[in-house]
């Protein structure tokens, strides 16, 4: 990598991204996470390719955050990846928030990351009573003290939170998870005058900020998303369209089955096949069905 300019070296160093991991990421991801131009990313890849071949064994697997539900962990190879943006989509009331609350607990446990969580609400008030109920079932650990809550209603508030408030908190507290519940609550609009080009730029700004936090601090980033009916395709699909979907690293889908059983489906992910697990929601949390 001797031919790389000093500014690229510095950005790689500051991001704490391992050189072997560069080959795992897309050009768009590297542009966002390292704040590089497309030309600089191309130069970086060429420099990497001039090096000797490395064994696939030497490329590290993505670390993951357990969901606390063995069946879901099984189809996700251990849980939520600490790499890029994970979206959990599904109709209202299927358990997206329940799973995110459980993640806010598991991230604090020894089996998780031993760190706190940031929970950003964009639609409803934070369900503190339910979190307290779950915490009592998982551990005596004082999880309520390590979940930091923010209520946000628009893009500008979310941008300031991701670029200013979260980095400031990270200087004081160890954080392993950021949840935005839901991303559609900030961006969805039924207005006929939506500037979709501007909205796409806003998507990119938010995801770039979150990717940088993920890389620099080893944080799992999870967003929930609402769904809408697509009359052309005759099915429901996540809100915000293709411009948003192109920025998502992993997409998981939750749907209802009979008798309270939910399906958790891997829709797409760079390192996972399409699989489905079943779970139920009980007083003690998200658990295996049956």
UniProtKB/TrEMBL annotation:
Gene3D superfamilies registered for this protein in UniProt: P-loop containing nucleotide triphosphate hydrolases (3.40.50.300)
Segments forming domain RecA family profile: 61-227
Keywords: ATP-binding, DNA damage, DNA repair, Nucleotide-binding, Nucleus
Main location as per UniProt: nucleus
Superkingdom as given in the UniProt entry: Eukaryota
InterPro entries: DNA_recomb/repair_RecA-like, P-loop_NTPase, Rad51_C, RecA_ATP-bd, XRCC3-like_C
Location of this chain's protein in the cell: Nucleus
Entry annotated with the keyword Metal-binding: no
Molecular function via GO: ATP binding; ATP-dependent DNA damage sensor activity; four-way junction DNA binding
Listed GO biological process terms: double-strand break repair via synthesis-dependent strand annealing; resolution of mitotic recombination intermediates; t-circle formation; telomere maintenance via recombination
Entries under PROSITE patterns matching the protein: RECA_2
Pfam families: Rad51 (PF08423)
GO CC, alphabetical: Rad51C-XRCC3 complex; replication fork
Protein name, entry field: RecA family profile 1 domain-containing protein
Species of origin: Photinus pyralis
């Amino acid at each position: 990598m001797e031919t790389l300019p000093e500014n690229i070296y510095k950005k790689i160093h500051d991001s704490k991204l391992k050189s072997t991991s560069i080959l795992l990421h897309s050009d768009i991801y590297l542009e966002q996470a390292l704040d590089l131009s497309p030309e600089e990313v191309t130069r970086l890849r060429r420099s990497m390719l001039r090096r000797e071949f490395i064994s696939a064994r030497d490329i590290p697997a993505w670390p993951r955050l357990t969901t606390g539900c063995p069946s879901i962990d099984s189809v996700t190879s251990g849980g939520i990846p600490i790499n890029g943006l994970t979206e959990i989509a599904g109709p209202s009331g299927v358990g997206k928030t329940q799973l995110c609350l459980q993640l806010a607990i598991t991230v604090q446990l020894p089996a998780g990351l031993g760190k706190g969580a940031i929970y950003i609400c964009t639609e409803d008030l934070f369900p503190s009573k339910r979190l307290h109920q779950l915490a009592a079932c998982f551990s005596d650990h004082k999880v309520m003290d390590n979940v930091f809550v923010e209520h946000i209603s628009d893009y500008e508030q979310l941008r300031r939170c991701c670029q200013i408030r979260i980095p400031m908190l990270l200087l004081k507290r160890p954080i392993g998870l950021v949840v935005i519940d839901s991303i559609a609550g900030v961006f969805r609009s039924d207005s006929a005058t939506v500037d979709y080009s501007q909205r796409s730029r806003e998507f990119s700004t938010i995801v770039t900020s979150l990717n940088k936090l993920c890389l620099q601090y080893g944080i799992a980033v999870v967003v929930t998303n609402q769904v809408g009916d697509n009359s052309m395709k005759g099915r429901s699909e996540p809100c915000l369209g293709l411009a948003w979907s192109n920025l998502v690293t992993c997409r998981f889908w939750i749907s209802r089955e009979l008798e309270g059983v939910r399906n958790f489906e891997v829709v797409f992910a760079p390192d996972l096949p399409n699989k489905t697990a079943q779970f139920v929601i009980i007083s003690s949390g998200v658990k295996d069905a049956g």
